[in-house]
Design goal:
By secondary structure, the protein is mostly beta strands. The protein is 0% helix and 42% strand. A hairpin with a 5-residue loop joins strand 11 (150-157) and strand 12 (163-169).
Length: 171
């Protein structure tokens, strides 16, 4: 995607789904933001709404962090989510997403690495706001696996919104 993030949808036959993205089957994000997004994740709700989570690798970024975009099933921006379809989660350093998981209650759980600050988990409500019931009231748990060198590679939700995190240690 060349400095912008995106997601492509395919039919069950493995062909581009031309009902999305103006016929290309591709949704692109990060255009005209001034900050290229080099790593992205995609997940979708049962009703077809699509999330693209983009992290930046720019050392010169004035607003490093994660950007969470939500689209309707037809590929149009879900303007009722976050601020005009986007929620920015600020971090102190360049940020790379590791996993995005839709919980049974519809909330979105994210894991990411924020440079030397380490791994963090964030949970957003169905409206795209930080979930005050998660972490310290700001929707974020910093270094959930104990040290700044640990990372959460994959998450799995349980029916009661508890979850497992699998990961490892670097260094």
């Amino acid at each position: 995607f060349g400095g912008i993030a995106g997601a492509a949808r395919f039919t069950p036959q493995g062909l581009p789904d031309t009902t999305l993205g103006g016929g290309s089957g591709v949704l692109e994000v990060g255009l005209n933001t001034g900050t290229p997004i080099f790593r992205a994740l995609v997940t979708a709700q049962n009703d077809g709404k699509i999330y693209i989570v983009g992290g930046d690798e720019s050392a010169n970024d004035l607003t490093p962090g994660l950007d969470v975009y939500r689209f309707n099933a037809n590929g149009t921006t879900d303007t009722g989510y976050g601020v005009s379809g986007v929620r920015h989660l600020a971090a102190n350093q360049r940020t790379l997403p590791h996993d995005a998981l839709i919980m049974p209650t519809g909330k979105l759980l994210l894991s990411a690495q924020a440079g030397d600050d380490g791994e963090f988990l964030a949970r957003l409500t169905t409206a795209g706001a930080p979930d005050a019931a998660f972490g310290g009231g700001d929707g974020i748990v910093q270094n959930p696996l104990a040290t700044t060198h640990d990372f959460a590679a994959e998450m799995v939700a349980l029916p009661d919104d508890s979850f497992f995190v699998a990961g490892g240690t670097v260094g």
